[in-house]
């Protein structure tokens, strides 16, 4: 499994860096607004990396190579889902680093990363990935290329409107949960989305003819 | 001798094509030529062996183990060369190799390095910069660097120049000096098989047409040439196919001894090549046994 994740990182290193670059640029652009900064930037960079990843695999027919290797097909699928975590952690680290640097430089437009923002970002990319992956494996990334596009703009604009102060209103729906537990709830929802999506994708991929 | 590969009753149905109950086996320490015209089902069979497609029926075993149940263990022992190398074009040869190497338990970096030098490959180059032939060489180097016991090759020589093809064939012959190593070699360049194959499996339109030792196959058949008047209705059934012209006929007979007895000294009998056999049988399968 580790080798499959390494494979994803090696194949996508250029695009990961590109995605993180976009992440940084958009951090400064959206820092001027009151949007959920981390969530917004994460969605943008994840959209770039994940769609490129699927398109590259399809262009080079990488599944035909992977299925000759001594790995189980379901592990190939799992590695795609674990890539979300890798991108999330990298984005988290970049954001935190930039926050610390910007604070030290006296630039206060970049806000501290809250558990809500982090959880919301994780949920957003999980929903994005959770919908696009099974469809791409079932019908090909080329055929379903409009799906990530639609999802990107839907989630992106939703993310842009989710401003930090709004949580109190949302949390009220969940019995006045404080920010921490609510963030945990969002994280649990994200994991659930990934698990359900993975349960759908594994049989699609394992029964697929290449 | 034990079998490296055994395929029994393999069936796979597509909308416009059906692989129809294919059975054959490959002994350890031998090279099997897997031949047939385009669309005969060669790649489909290879994909079924590699579990890249779901078969509708049949059993495939490698060294006596099921190719699906023991997939991970078995694929550690298989080297695969596909008709197109499916690699990330934007990566260098070294980066791609580093990506693949950890998957194999028995990766041998020295062997890989030797092949890279022997094939004149530059590891700093991007894969997209390689010609088809160089890409095929790279694919072969990767397939041979993890001490594979079975090499499965799908049209490996199609993009190679004659010199490199010759080198590859020598390499395969060297490889099977180790009696535990075997080669399953799908190709339509049948002259390669004349040189190295021990067995021939011939598919046409999804059906198994021939499956026997190459030398027996070539000894049993005969290319017969003679004047047109020799080609009577009584001798025609001996032929797999016949080509006729104003000067006479040329045909492939399936039983050399029988056709010799039937025609006597009036005709010329020659040993066929694998290509002759493939062409005549393909025409027969397509309903064109007799050509004017």
Structural notes for this entry:
- The complex is a heterodimer of chains A (210) and B (292).
- Helices cover 78% and strands 0% of the residues of chain A.
- With 210 residues, chain A is mainly α.
- Chain A has one domain (2-206).
- In chain A, helix 2 (37-59) packs parallel to helix 5, helix 4 packs antiparallel against helix 8 (179-206) and helix 5 (115-139) packs parallel to helix 8 (179-206).
- The two termini of chain A are 21 Å apart.
- Chain B is α/β, with parallel strands linked by helices and 292 residues long.
- Chain B folds into two domains: 3-215, 3-Layer(aba) Sandwich (Rossmann fold), CATH 3.40.50; 221-291, Alpha-Beta Plaits (2-Layer Sandwich), CATH 3.30.70.
- Chain B contains ten helices and 15 strands.
- In chain B, a hairpin with a 2-residue loop joins strand 12 (239-245) and strand 13 (248-253).
- The N and C termini of chain B lie far apart (46 Å).
- The model of chain B has no long low-confidence stretch (mean pLDDT 90).
- Chain A: This is ABC-2 family transporter protein.
- Chain A: The chain crosses the membrane at residues 12-29, 35-56, 77-101, 113-137, 144-162, 182-205.
- Chain A: It holds the Pfam family ABC2_membrane_5.
- Chain A: Keywords: Membrane, Transmembrane, Transmembrane helix.
